[in-house]
Description:
The protein has 21 helices and eight strands. By secondary structure, the protein is an alpha/beta fold. Strands 1-2-8-7-3-6-4-5 form an eight-stranded mixed beta sheet, with helices on both faces. Strand 4, helix 4 and strand 5 form a beta-alpha-beta unit. Helix 2 crosses helix 3, helix 6 crosses helix 7 and helix 7 crosses helix 9.
Amino acid sequence: MERAAAASSVPPPAADALQAAPPLYGPLRLLIRSLLSVFFRRVRVTGEEHLPATGPLILVGNHPNSLLDPALLLATVERPVAFAAKDALFRSALLRPILHGVGAVPIRRRVDVDGAEAASAASAATASSATATPPVDNQDAFAAMATHLGGGGAIGIFPEGCSHDEAQLLPLKTGAARIALGALSAGSPVQIVPVGLNYLRARRFRSSVLVRFGPPLRLDPAFLADAATDPRAAARALTAQIDLGIRALTIQSDDWATLRVLETVRRLYQPPGLSLEARVELQRRFAAGYTRVAEQPEVKRLFAAVGRFRERLDALDLSERDLQRRFDGGTIVARFWRRTGPALLWLPLALPGLLLHGPAAIATGLLAGRLTPRRDVIATSSLFIGVALVLLTWAVLAGLMVQHDGVRALLWLPLLPLSGWAGLRLMERYADARELLASVWSFLRFREEISALRRECRRLEAAVVAAVVKNLPPDLEPLFLQARLEQLGDLPTGDADWDGRDGEVAAAAMDAAGVGHDQENEFLGAFAELLAKEIE
């Protein structure tokens, strides 16, 4: 797990907090961390300075990827965390010991109530129109979590209520707020920390994920006083705060098609070499800002132009990064060697790993999607199926080894995970090399189209930067705007008259770029042409 530099200042959890964890918590956490390090290429963690080392704590996060979401929190939070989990999961013979091992608390959801209870509730509501359908009883679960908080423990809740694959948050349930208000009313100094789970490709094996912890929500004394008189209104108000806290840490969009275009906008804007956390924050800002300016005519034209540009790239199986690459012979050879050369050192260990684990990997890829009814569960299914098939492979191989060479043959078993890891790294290098060769092949086949796309890319980059300068809220600190404006230095120069809003835009652009007085005319001429470009 990769952590931001600020995370090093976080003190370790207190010994009494660690002792409060279930006996199997430590070993299960180690196992989960190991599995996640295999499933994800990179897990990046930021904002750990917001996590209190001791004292009652409620973590509230988004829920886009089924059981991988609590697994990531369990792996990245250093102190023990007990999770609220739907009671249907406890019926699984496979999951039950794991859930009990990490101290999970079963929660009943209305959608999980069986048909008899649902029918009974429906008939009762029909018989008396003045009486609403009785809520699902979770008082025992809430009491258990309140007791855990009262003892200084930490709990994790996903207030959307269920995992999903939508491009934005579902409406939040009030359960987390009610638990927090109950603990506060009992005198427990509970802190509520929002969490954002940002998956680059939620269902893809060996992708990356960013876990962001936000600052604790602030509850003023007046709010707590009002909560005592109207707890339902207070729960709704606190849930609204939780919603804002999670949205500030995650990327939200109306739909995936819109988000895909906005991802292209972000790539056109961003300078090279950005970290994962910087890319996620930039994407979050573009997605949030787009809803504010989406109806502006110039924004609509730009959005449509970027969408067409994205479609042209997809048709040639290219990315924006491919347009920035050099495709001369020496560069291609050097890059190919950088991607494949180190893999030669792993080859002796990797080849047996590929032969042994390859069938399990192929079977996992075929089975996960077909056996999973929902897209948001595919990654979890892949992990469980993959682990089961790999363990079965090891068990069969161990049996064959003992049958052939006795018990001493088991001394070779530690090489199995090492060879599997080496095989996995070799396949990653192979995938990188294949991507490079595919880009070279596209360049050779579509030279004219790529040249046209490069010109269009440059034009859209300038248009996106201009749109950012024109629409950036005055109270929002710009990200990387100076670096992008400095890259517009090769635009044609000219004369322009500046007044009104365009004058403010030009002044803001010059200030962000650090343009001196002697460069003012040249910059204004270039920026005038930039703003005059029509995106048809």
